[in-house]
Amino acid sequence: TQHRLDVILDLGRALGTTLELPVLLQVVVNRITEVLPVEQVALLMVDPETGAIVPRATRFRDERQADGRLRISRRMVTRALRERIAVLTNDAASDIRLQNAEGLEDLPIRSAIVAPMIAQGEPVGIIHLATSSETDVFDESDVHLVVGIAAQAAIAIEKARLYTDLRSAYEGLQ
Q1: What DSSP assignment string belongs to 131-166?
Q2: Helix axes 2-15, 140-173, angle to 10 degrees
Q3: Which end of the chain is more exposed for a tag (fewer CB within 10 A), N or C?
Q4: Which residues share a beta bridge with 90?
């Protein structure tokens, strides 16, 4: 729809205005909540030194309900990063791919999307969206939108990292 295209265009413009990584990441999660019926969106980055997956930006539809605990399926995250594909579930409780997933039974996730952010062929992080709504489940068009957002975010993240490295090197010469 036109609204989704407007959000993508606006995101591209916003990502081009800053090289500060925390600002970039928050812009991404904020734009996602504007266009998709998410209860929670999290942007997790792969630590380049340790390989650990670390939450770097989050947003909850209702901040009062944010108990500080991200509701994330580790199995979905691992699959998205390993296979470099977006993963969608419309019924997390009965999704056979997620059976016996650690901690999932404690999470009130009905529908979720996990999309990897790939820069120069390597995953730099993931975008994780979740909702417990029975009526607002994600579909393939939502996956395509999130994959597009993830691609834009990955480029902006890589650019911000390169800028930070260059600035540090320059400061080290002085």
Answers
A1: E--SS----HHHHHHHHHHHHHHHHHHHHHHHHHHH
A2: 10
A3: C
A4: none
Reported as half-sphere exposure (CB side, CA atoms, 13 A), residue 26 has a value of: 6
pLDDT in tens, 58-83: 988 776 555 556 677 788 888 999 99
pLDDT tens string 116-169: 999 999 999 999 998 888 878 899 999 999 999 999 999 999 999 888 889 889
Instruction: Give bridge partners of residue 53 from the DSSP assignment.
Output: 46
29 residue type, one letter:
V
Contact 124, 164 (CB under 8 A): no
Q: How many CB atoms lie within 10 A of CB 3?
A: 9
pTM for this prediction: 0.85
C-beta of residue 71 within 8 angstroms of C-beta of residue 92 = no
Q: Do the beta carbons of residue 75 and residue 102 sit within 8 Å? A: yes
Per the structure block, which two tokens stand in for 150? 């993830």
> Both tokens of residue 48?
């380049």
